[in-house]
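Late entry, evening session. Most of the bench is empty. Finally got around to the prediction I had been postponing all week. Sequence below, unchanged from the version circulated by S.P.
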Amino acid sequence: MKGARVFIPHDIIFNILERLPAKSILRFRGVCKSWSSLISDPYFLLCHAHRAKPSVLLTRYTQPSLGLQLQPVRCTNTQTTTFEVRCPCLSLLASCDGLLCFQGIPFGTRRHYSPGYYYVCNPLTDEWITLPEAWCNNGFLCAFYHHSSMNEYRLLRNSPYGYEILTIGAKEWRRITCLFDANPSPMLEFYVLHGPPSLDKPPISVHGKLHYLPTIGTPLIWLIIVFDIDSEKFGLMSLPESCRTKEWTIHESRLIELEGKLGVSTIAPDAMLDIWMLEDYEKQVWVKRYRVQTTPRREQITWFKPLVVHDDGKALVDWRGDLVLYDFKHHTCRKIIIEDGFRMTNLLYKESLIRHEFFETGYQTGFIINLVSSFYLQQQTSR
Protein backbone atom coordinates (compact mmCIF):
# COMPACT_ATOMS: atom_id res chain seq x y z
CA MET A 1 0.00 0.00 0.00
CA LYS A 2 1.31 3.43 -0.93
CA GLY A 3 2.74 5.33 2.03
CA ALA A 4 2.79 2.27 4.29
CA ARG A 5 5.70 2.03 6.71
CA VAL A 6 8.20 -0.75 6.11
CA PHE A 7 9.15 -2.77 9.18
CA ILE A 8 12.79 -3.84 9.34
CA PRO A 9 13.57 -6.48 11.98
CA HIS A 10 15.91 -5.41 14.78
CA ASP A 11 18.49 -8.10 13.92
CA ILE A 12 18.82 -6.84 10.36
CA ILE A 13 19.30 -3.25 11.53
CA PHE A 14 21.91 -4.46 14.02
CA ASN A 15 23.81 -6.41 11.35
CA ILE A 16 23.80 -3.46 8.97
CA LEU A 17 24.87 -0.83 11.48
CA GLU A 18 27.70 -2.86 13.01
CA ARG A 19 29.37 -2.96 9.58
CA LEU A 20 29.41 0.81 9.11
CA PRO A 21 32.32 3.17 9.87
CA ALA A 22 32.29 4.83 13.27
CA LYS A 23 31.66 8.25 11.77
CA SER A 24 28.41 7.01 10.22
CA ILE A 25 27.40 5.35 13.48
CA LEU A 26 27.78 8.65 15.34
CA ARG A 27 25.70 10.44 12.73
CA PHE A 28 22.89 7.83 12.72
CA ARG A 29 22.25 8.24 16.45
CA GLY A 30 19.95 11.09 15.47
CA VAL A 31 17.75 9.05 13.12
CA CYS A 32 15.31 7.87 15.79
CA LYS A 33 15.15 6.85 19.45
CA SER A 34 15.38 3.12 18.72
CA TRP A 35 18.57 3.59 16.65
CA SER A 36 20.05 5.84 19.32
CA SER A 37 19.29 3.23 21.97
CA LEU A 38 20.80 0.45 19.84
CA ILE A 39 23.96 2.41 19.01
CA SER A 40 24.45 3.28 22.69
CA ASP A 41 24.14 -0.34 23.78
CA PRO A 42 27.51 -1.69 25.10
CA TYR A 43 27.02 -5.03 23.32
CA PHE A 44 26.52 -3.29 19.97
CA LEU A 45 29.61 -1.13 20.52
CA LEU A 46 31.64 -4.24 21.38
CA CYS A 47 30.47 -6.05 18.21
CA HIS A 48 31.20 -2.96 16.11
CA ALA A 49 34.73 -2.67 17.56
CA HIS A 50 35.47 -6.36 16.94
CA ARG A 51 34.59 -5.93 13.24
CA ALA A 52 36.93 -2.98 12.80
CA LYS A 53 39.98 -3.66 10.64
CA PRO A 54 43.38 -2.28 11.63
CA SER A 55 44.71 0.65 9.64
CA VAL A 56 48.11 2.30 9.40
CA LEU A 57 48.33 5.62 11.20
CA LEU A 58 49.87 8.60 9.40
CA THR A 59 50.89 11.80 11.18
CA ARG A 60 51.56 15.39 10.12
CA TYR A 61 52.32 18.56 12.07
CA THR A 62 50.43 21.65 10.93
CA GLN A 63 51.32 25.34 10.88
CA PRO A 64 50.94 27.79 12.49
CA SER A 65 49.15 26.02 15.37
CA LEU A 66 51.66 23.13 15.50
CA GLY A 67 48.72 20.75 15.83
CA LEU A 68 49.22 17.05 15.12
CA GLN A 69 47.04 15.53 12.41
CA LEU A 70 46.37 11.79 12.53
CA GLN A 71 45.09 9.92 9.50
CA PRO A 72 44.21 6.19 9.56
CA VAL A 73 44.63 4.48 6.18
CA ARG A 74 42.68 1.28 5.53
CA CYS A 75 42.86 -1.34 2.81
CA THR A 76 39.19 -1.05 1.88
CA ASN A 77 38.09 2.58 1.60
CA THR A 78 39.26 5.53 -0.48
CA GLN A 79 38.27 8.07 2.18
CA THR A 80 39.05 8.28 5.87
CA THR A 81 38.69 10.68 8.78
CA THR A 82 41.62 12.83 9.82
CA PHE A 83 41.89 13.87 13.46
CA GLU A 84 43.80 16.95 14.53
CA VAL A 85 45.14 17.31 18.07
CA ARG A 86 45.27 21.02 18.75
CA CYS A 87 48.07 20.92 21.28
CA PRO A 88 51.78 21.37 20.47
CA CYS A 89 52.90 19.74 23.73
CA LEU A 90 52.03 16.10 22.99
CA SER A 91 53.91 13.33 21.19
CA LEU A 92 52.05 10.24 19.94
CA LEU A 93 53.58 7.02 21.30
CA ALA A 94 51.18 4.07 21.08
CA SER A 95 47.77 2.79 19.99
CA CYS A 96 45.53 0.05 21.39
CA ASP A 97 41.91 -0.83 20.55
CA GLY A 98 40.98 2.63 19.31
CA LEU A 99 42.80 4.40 22.15
CA LEU A 100 45.87 6.57 21.63
CA CYS A 101 48.63 7.24 24.15
CA PHE A 102 50.57 10.51 24.14
CA GLN A 103 53.54 11.73 26.15
CA GLY A 104 54.13 15.28 27.27
CA ILE A 105 56.75 17.40 25.53
CA PRO A 106 58.47 20.09 27.65
CA PHE A 107 56.75 23.40 26.88
CA GLY A 108 57.76 26.49 28.82
CA THR A 109 56.83 26.26 32.49
CA ARG A 110 53.87 23.91 32.00
CA ARG A 111 54.73 21.08 34.38
CA HIS A 112 51.94 18.77 33.17
CA TYR A 113 53.58 18.58 29.74
CA SER A 114 56.82 17.09 31.07
CA PRO A 115 57.98 13.65 29.77
CA GLY A 116 56.81 12.09 33.04
CA TYR A 117 53.17 12.62 32.06
CA TYR A 118 51.16 10.42 29.73
CA TYR A 119 47.71 10.95 28.26
CA VAL A 120 45.18 8.52 26.79
CA CYS A 121 42.33 9.52 24.49
CA ASN A 122 39.70 8.16 22.15
CA PRO A 123 39.93 10.47 19.11
CA LEU A 124 36.41 9.56 17.94
CA THR A 125 34.74 10.77 21.13
CA ASP A 126 37.41 13.31 22.18
CA GLU A 127 37.57 11.80 25.67
CA TRP A 128 40.90 12.26 27.48
CA ILE A 129 42.48 11.24 30.73
CA THR A 130 45.73 12.56 32.22
CA LEU A 131 47.64 9.71 33.84
CA PRO A 132 49.58 9.91 37.13
CA GLU A 133 53.12 11.18 36.83
CA ALA A 134 55.74 8.46 36.46
CA TRP A 135 58.43 7.92 39.08
CA CYS A 136 60.96 9.79 36.96
CA ASN A 137 61.23 11.41 33.54
CA ASN A 138 64.20 9.28 32.47
CA GLY A 139 62.32 6.33 31.07
CA PHE A 140 60.40 5.23 28.02
CA LEU A 141 57.20 3.42 27.19
CA CYS A 142 57.51 -0.23 26.13
CA ALA A 143 53.86 -1.17 25.54
CA PHE A 144 50.23 -0.06 25.66
CA TYR A 145 48.07 -3.16 25.95
CA HIS A 146 44.75 -4.69 27.00
CA HIS A 147 44.58 -7.12 29.93
CA SER A 148 41.60 -9.16 28.72
CA SER A 149 40.91 -11.20 31.86
CA MET A 150 40.77 -8.03 33.98
CA ASN A 151 39.35 -5.89 31.14
CA GLU A 152 41.95 -3.23 31.88
CA TYR A 153 44.26 -1.14 29.73
CA ARG A 154 47.83 -0.81 30.93
CA LEU A 155 51.16 0.84 30.15
CA LEU A 156 54.49 -0.94 30.52
CA ARG A 157 57.43 1.39 31.06
CA ASN A 158 61.16 1.03 31.63
CA SER A 159 63.15 3.50 33.72
CA PRO A 160 66.35 3.60 35.81
CA TYR A 161 64.23 2.16 38.63
CA GLY A 162 63.26 -0.89 36.56
CA TYR A 163 60.00 -1.87 34.88
CA GLU A 164 56.79 -0.12 35.90
CA ILE A 165 53.13 -0.74 35.08
CA LEU A 166 50.19 1.64 35.21
CA THR A 167 46.59 0.51 34.95
CA ILE A 168 44.64 3.25 33.17
CA GLY A 169 42.39 4.75 35.83
CA ALA A 170 44.69 3.84 38.75
CA LYS A 171 46.26 6.53 40.93
CA GLU A 172 49.91 5.51 40.69
CA TRP A 173 52.48 3.41 38.86
CA ARG A 174 53.71 0.16 40.40
CA ARG A 175 57.07 -1.54 39.94
CA ILE A 176 57.55 -5.13 38.82
CA THR A 177 59.68 -6.77 41.49
CA CYS A 178 60.20 -10.16 39.80
CA LEU A 179 60.87 -10.12 36.05
CA PHE A 180 61.55 -13.83 35.44
CA ASP A 181 60.59 -17.33 36.45
CA ALA A 182 63.20 -19.36 38.31
CA ASN A 183 66.63 -19.69 36.65
CA PRO A 184 66.23 -17.46 33.56
CA SER A 185 68.78 -17.86 30.79
CA PRO A 186 71.68 -15.36 30.78
CA MET A 187 70.60 -14.18 27.32
CA LEU A 188 67.09 -13.34 28.54
CA GLU A 189 68.45 -11.46 31.54
CA PHE A 190 70.84 -9.53 29.32
CA TYR A 191 68.13 -8.44 26.92
CA VAL A 192 65.49 -7.50 29.47
CA LEU A 193 67.88 -5.65 31.78
CA HIS A 194 70.16 -3.99 29.21
CA GLY A 195 68.16 -3.84 25.98
CA PRO A 196 64.47 -3.41 26.90
CA PRO A 197 61.64 -3.53 24.34
CA SER A 198 61.20 -0.54 22.06
CA LEU A 199 58.10 0.96 20.44
CA ASP A 200 60.09 1.36 17.21
CA LYS A 201 58.56 -2.04 16.44
CA PRO A 202 55.42 -2.21 18.61
CA PRO A 203 54.71 -5.54 20.32
CA ILE A 204 52.16 -8.03 18.98
CA SER A 205 49.58 -9.08 21.56
CA VAL A 206 48.20 -12.62 21.11
CA HIS A 207 47.50 -15.49 23.52
CA GLY A 208 47.65 -13.13 26.49
CA LYS A 209 51.27 -12.22 25.81
CA LEU A 210 53.25 -9.38 24.24
CA HIS A 211 55.83 -10.38 21.64
CA TYR A 212 58.93 -8.38 20.65
CA LEU A 213 61.85 -8.92 18.37
CA PRO A 214 65.16 -8.27 20.13
CA THR A 215 66.88 -4.97 19.50
CA ILE A 216 69.87 -4.87 17.16
CA GLY A 217 73.15 -5.63 18.87
CA THR A 218 71.86 -8.08 21.48
CA PRO A 219 72.81 -11.78 21.38
CA LEU A 220 69.19 -12.97 21.00
CA ILE A 221 69.19 -12.93 17.22
CA TRP A 222 66.98 -15.99 16.64
CA LEU A 223 64.47 -15.55 19.42
CA ILE A 224 61.33 -13.63 20.31
CA ILE A 225 60.99 -11.88 23.66
CA VAL A 226 57.67 -12.67 25.37
CA PHE A 227 56.00 -10.71 28.18
CA ASP A 228 53.22 -12.63 29.92
CA ILE A 229 50.42 -10.18 30.65
CA ASP A 230 49.03 -12.20 33.59
CA SER A 231 52.24 -13.21 35.39
CA GLU A 232 54.11 -10.05 34.29
CA LYS A 233 57.26 -12.05 33.59
CA PHE A 234 59.54 -12.19 30.56
CA GLY A 235 60.36 -15.32 28.58
CA LEU A 236 61.62 -16.54 25.20
CA MET A 237 60.30 -18.39 22.16
CA SER A 238 61.90 -19.45 18.87
CA LEU A 239 61.58 -17.92 15.42
CA PRO A 240 60.99 -20.15 12.35
CA GLU A 241 63.91 -22.36 11.31
CA SER A 242 64.55 -20.30 8.17
CA CYS A 243 65.58 -17.41 10.41
CA ARG A 244 68.32 -19.45 12.07
CA THR A 245 70.96 -18.79 9.44
CA LYS A 246 74.03 -16.59 9.40
CA GLU A 247 72.46 -14.47 6.63
CA TRP A 248 69.47 -13.49 8.76
CA THR A 249 69.57 -10.18 10.60
CA ILE A 250 67.05 -8.68 12.96
CA HIS A 251 66.41 -5.50 10.96
CA GLU A 252 65.13 -7.59 8.02
CA SER A 253 62.17 -8.99 9.99
CA ARG A 254 59.09 -7.73 11.77
CA LEU A 255 56.35 -9.34 13.81
CA ILE A 256 52.75 -9.02 12.62
CA GLU A 257 49.34 -10.33 13.58
CA LEU A 258 48.07 -12.78 10.97
CA GLU A 259 44.58 -14.30 11.11
CA GLY A 260 44.50 -13.70 14.85
CA LYS A 261 47.84 -15.46 15.34
CA LEU A 262 51.44 -14.42 15.68
CA GLY A 263 53.22 -13.91 12.36
CA VAL A 264 56.65 -12.84 11.21
CA SER A 265 58.01 -11.58 7.90
CA THR A 266 61.55 -12.68 7.13
CA ILE A 267 63.91 -12.85 4.17
CA ALA A 268 64.98 -16.33 3.10
CA PRO A 269 68.52 -17.11 1.84
CA ASP A 270 67.19 -17.11 -1.77
CA ALA A 271 66.15 -13.44 -1.38
CA MET A 272 62.44 -14.28 -1.15
CA LEU A 273 60.27 -12.69 1.52
CA ASP A 274 58.38 -15.27 3.57
CA ILE A 275 55.40 -14.66 5.83
CA TRP A 276 55.25 -17.25 8.61
CA MET A 277 52.34 -17.91 10.96
CA LEU A 278 52.55 -19.60 14.37
CA GLU A 279 49.93 -22.30 13.76
CA ASP A 280 50.36 -24.08 17.10
CA TYR A 281 51.34 -21.64 19.83
CA GLU A 282 51.97 -24.20 22.58
CA LYS A 283 54.17 -26.46 20.43
CA GLN A 284 55.66 -23.47 18.57
CA VAL A 285 54.87 -24.87 15.14
CA TRP A 286 55.39 -22.30 12.36
CA VAL A 287 53.87 -22.64 8.87
CA LYS A 288 54.75 -20.60 5.80
CA ARG A 289 51.65 -18.60 4.81
CA TYR A 290 52.89 -16.44 1.92
CA ARG A 291 55.99 -15.99 -0.23
CA VAL A 292 56.90 -12.87 -2.22
CA GLN A 293 59.60 -12.12 -4.78
CA THR A 294 59.77 -8.44 -5.61
CA THR A 295 63.41 -8.17 -6.68
CA PRO A 296 66.32 -10.56 -7.17
CA ARG A 297 68.57 -8.43 -4.97
CA ARG A 298 68.53 -9.18 -1.25
CA GLU A 299 69.29 -5.60 -0.22
CA GLN A 300 66.18 -4.42 -2.10
CA ILE A 301 63.78 -7.00 -0.67
CA THR A 302 64.54 -5.48 2.75
CA TRP A 303 62.58 -2.43 1.58
CA PHE A 304 59.38 -4.52 1.59
CA LYS A 305 57.96 -4.21 5.12
CA PRO A 306 54.42 -5.55 5.78
CA LEU A 307 52.64 -3.36 8.33
CA VAL A 308 49.23 -5.04 8.50
CA VAL A 309 47.99 -8.20 6.77
CA HIS A 310 44.25 -8.98 6.61
CA ASP A 311 42.73 -12.45 6.54
CA ASP A 312 41.93 -12.11 2.81
CA GLY A 313 45.62 -11.63 1.98
CA LYS A 314 45.45 -7.88 1.39
CA ALA A 315 48.16 -5.94 3.18
CA LEU A 316 49.48 -2.45 3.73
CA VAL A 317 53.21 -2.44 3.06
CA ASP A 318 55.98 0.09 3.57
CA TRP A 319 57.98 0.02 0.32
CA ARG A 320 60.95 2.39 0.58
CA GLY A 321 58.83 4.95 2.42
CA ASP A 322 55.81 4.60 0.14
CA LEU A 323 52.57 3.08 1.40
CA VAL A 324 51.46 0.24 -0.88
CA LEU A 325 48.37 -1.97 -0.96
CA TYR A 326 49.64 -5.47 -1.74
CA ASP A 327 47.60 -8.60 -2.44
CA PHE A 328 49.56 -11.65 -1.26
CA LYS A 329 47.20 -14.08 -3.00
CA HIS A 330 47.24 -12.48 -6.46
CA HIS A 331 50.64 -10.73 -6.20
CA THR A 332 49.34 -7.34 -7.31
CA CYS A 333 50.06 -3.97 -5.78
CA ARG A 334 48.78 -0.41 -5.85
CA LYS A 335 50.49 2.64 -4.45
CA ILE A 336 48.49 4.77 -2.04
CA ILE A 337 48.91 8.48 -2.68
CA ILE A 338 48.77 10.45 0.56
CA GLU A 339 48.73 14.16 1.19
CA ASP A 340 51.93 16.16 1.45
CA GLY A 341 53.52 16.25 4.86
CA PHE A 342 52.08 13.01 6.20
CA ARG A 343 54.51 10.33 7.27
CA MET A 344 54.00 6.69 8.15
CA THR A 345 54.20 5.47 11.71
CA ASN A 346 54.60 1.93 13.04
CA LEU A 347 51.25 2.26 14.82
CA LEU A 348 48.05 0.45 13.87
CA TYR A 349 44.67 1.96 14.69
CA LYS A 350 41.24 0.32 15.01
CA GLU A 351 38.07 2.38 15.35
CA SER A 352 36.19 1.89 18.61
CA LEU A 353 33.25 3.66 20.25
CA ILE A 354 33.37 1.52 23.39
CA ARG A 355 32.85 3.61 26.51
CA HIS A 356 35.49 3.26 29.24
CA GLU A 357 34.85 4.04 32.89
CA PHE A 358 38.27 5.61 33.38
CA PHE A 359 37.26 8.49 31.10
CA GLU A 360 34.62 9.47 33.67
CA THR A 361 37.48 10.76 35.81
CA GLY A 362 39.03 12.48 32.78
CA TYR A 363 37.67 15.21 30.60
CA GLN A 364 36.54 16.18 27.13
CA THR A 365 39.07 18.65 25.83
CA GLY A 366 37.95 19.89 22.48
CA PHE A 367 41.52 19.06 21.36
CA ILE A 368 40.25 16.90 18.51
CA ILE A 369 38.93 18.28 15.25
CA ASN A 370 37.35 15.74 12.92
CA LEU A 371 38.30 16.48 9.35
CA VAL A 372 37.67 14.56 6.14
CA SER A 373 40.74 13.81 4.11
CA SER A 374 41.02 11.58 1.08
CA PHE A 375 43.68 9.44 -0.47
CA TYR A 376 43.52 7.43 -3.64
CA LEU A 377 45.12 4.38 -5.19
CA GLN A 378 47.24 4.41 -8.29
CA GLN A 379 46.33 2.10 -11.13
CA GLN A 380 46.86 -1.51 -10.19
CA THR A 381 50.05 -3.11 -11.39
CA SER A 382 51.00 -6.78 -11.41
CA ARG A 383 54.27 -8.25 -10.26
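Two things to note before I forget:
Residues 375-383 have pLDDT under 50 and may be disordered.
The radius of gyration is 22 Å.
Will write this up properly tomorrow.
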